[in-house]
Design brief:
There is one protein chain. This protein is an alpha/beta fold. The protein has one domain (13-241): Glycoside hydrolase/deacetylase (TIM Barrel), CATH 3.20.20. Helix content is 31%, strand content 20%. It has helices at 26-37, 53-60, 82-100, 123-132, 168-177, 199-204, 208-218, 229-240; strands at 4-7, 14-21, 41-45, 66-69, 106-108, 137-139, 161-162, 191-197, 224-226, 243-244, 250-252, 259-263, 266-270, 275-277. The strands form 4 sheets. Strands 2, 3, 4, 7, 8 and 9 form a 6-stranded parallel sheet that branches. Strand 3 (41-45), helix 2 (53-60) and strand 4 (66-69) form a beta-alpha-beta unit. Zinc ion binds next to loops.
């Protein structure tokens, strides 16, 4: 019997992602700043972003960032009747896909999201209709923690912290100092640092230097993959799609992603379509 742990592309043990909401004009400065550091962000937009289509293309999409659904009219899923919730998500998805000519399956819950419920809606209802609408993950909020774990439920993806969390720099220090491959046995699981917020908060709070401070502390690490929310989702799903023989010595990759994994301390790569033989361990 062996321990199997996901490794991110290149065999990296950690990943960092950002998620910023509402499509305000400060997203331009935000995107320009984090692009310098090589960080990747998912910008969650309504059907009425304050940036032009050209600005979103130039500052966000062309720089390797991503856009995702945030409700056409920014309505909390938990407090709307299901039909209204469905309409708000579908309208937003249709608008973004048509305007930016791409498939968009990611989302961040607007307003109070799934933190409270009423009007006949439950989490199970919301999760079901998001799945039916082709939304594969959605970010929630208000559960800041320093566990750095990958989500167990993609439709309730809890971030690590809001950038205004007073402990954010401590969390980052703890994260970057983790030696995961050097840890014992079951402690070798991968870690994710997920930061969220609104770029207008840096403008309103007059603390854009905090963004630089965060970016400087968390960027440029050899053991870390910097990726958008959807890139992380797609990669983790590819890892979960690996096929194992019963004795765990053969691993087949039926996906179009090269997948890395750590088996009892040894890192392996399984290329698309390939079957590897696990010899060590
Ligand atoms: Zn919002």
């Amino acid at each position: 019997m062996r321990y199997f742990f996901l490794r991110f592309p290149g065999g990296k043990t950690k990943a960092v992602t950002l998620s910023y909401d509402d499509g305000c004009r400060d997203d331009i400065r935000m995107a320009d700043t984090i692009s310098k550091y090589g960080l990747k962000c998912t910008f969650n937009l309504t059907a009425n972003p304050a940036m032009t289509k050209e600005e979103i293309q130039e500052h966000i999409l062309d720089k390797g960032h991503e856009i995702a659904v945030h409700g056409a009219q920014h309505r909390a899923e938990g407090l709307q009747r299901p039909a209204a919730g469905i309409k708000d998500v579908l309208d937003c998805r249709l608008y973004l896909e048509k305007t930016f000519d791409r498939i968009i399956r990611g989302m961040a819950y607007p307003d109070s999201g799934i933190t409270r419920f009423g009007n006949g809606t439950s989490y199970e209802t919301v999760k079901q209709y998001l799945s039916d609408l082709g939304i594969v993950y959605s970010r929630t909020l208000a559960g800041d923690n320093n566990k750095f774990e990958l989500p167990t439920d993609w439709h309730a993806w809890m971030p690590t912290a809001h950038h205004k969390n007073p402990q954010i720099m401590e969390y980052i220090k703890e994260f970057v100092e983790l030696d995961i491959d050097g840890s014992y046995g079951a402690r070798r699981y991968p870690r994710l640092f997920y930061i969220w917020g609104h770029s207008f908060e840096f403008e309103r709070d007059e603390n854009w230097e905090l963004l630089d401070e965060i970016a400087e502390a968390i960027s440029g690490k050899e053991d870390t993959w910097y990726a958008t929310n959807m890139e992380i989702y797609a990669y983790v799903e590819a890892y979960h799609a690996l096929v194992f023989s019963a004795d765990e010595t053969k691993i087949y990759n039926p996906t179009l992603h090269a997948v890395w994994l750590n088996i009892d301390g040894v890192t392996y790569t399984v290329k698309p379509g390939e079957t590897i033989i696990v010899t060590e361990g």
